[in-house]
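This part of the workshop introduces the protein records we will be handling. To make this concrete, we reproduce a full record directly below:
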Amino acid sequence: MKKITLLMNVVFNLHTLQDIKCDNPHFELTKEIKYGSCVKCVYKCIRCKFTSPRVNLYDEIKTLNPGPNPGELTRMFASALQETPMGIKRGRFLMAAGLNIPPPTKRALQKHSYVVANEIKELNDNDMKKKLEAVKEVNIIRGVKEPSHIPVAIDTRYNSAWLKGKGLDVTCPDGHAGTCTANVKPTTPLSEYLMGKENGLQVDRQNVLIKYAVTDGDGRGAEGINDALKVLLPLWKVERQADPIHLGRSQFRQSNSANFSLNMFPGSTREKKKQGQNVLSQDLKARCSLVFNEMWKENFGNVEKI
């Protein structure tokens, strides 16, 4: 409403400054120009043929780039999509079908998302720098001999094969016929190793060394951190430690995939025998986890005593 009031004030003031005298103006909207999620309007007086310039109904973001400044509303929409799993395609569908609002073009949202993603990464890097400094300060207060040596826990989560398994289209929208919409190169691998390497380079820039890295059984994040830190300190070694939660899951997987004798489990079919093996694996996992947790409590987390 504030922008509408400002728009009418601008149009009325420009109308009074024109050479042609019009005592009883009558304005009507003649053109509505869409700009992302924002709108520019042009008004005209039907009595004196006065036409206003384009007036923005949105706040601009001042940039040094050539061309018109982007609108705040479109940038905010792209920022919100970064925090949801719906993506640009479903975000546009939500605006059009769910809210009956003309959505921005896919290309405009992709440009804004690229800018927003870089800004989010920069914010995250700055936040991690502050957290590392806070950890070093706590280590100094605790009297740690090497306050810049810290332990970390690292893990990843990804959504890949199950999307296609549920019938969703996971191919590039353009089929690589025109401009590819992927945000990574086709040859770029997605791995815990590269993530760990990036984390190692980040902490190394702040003169921090990682001594212990807690990962799951099949993770290579600790290896990536170790290779990154070895660039400047060839003799440094990152020790990988097992996570108790993943330890139980690893026990279940090993037991459930083990080759037992044919008469180990009752059942007339292979499926029934597999169910029995699954029950045994769950029982072994529960028993081992119970013993480990009790020993952890009794020894106050001292792994050597356990």
Observations:
- The first strand starts at residue 27 and ends at 35.
- The chain has four domains: 1-58, 63-125, 148-155+191-242, 243-306.
- The two ends are 68 Å apart (CA to CA).
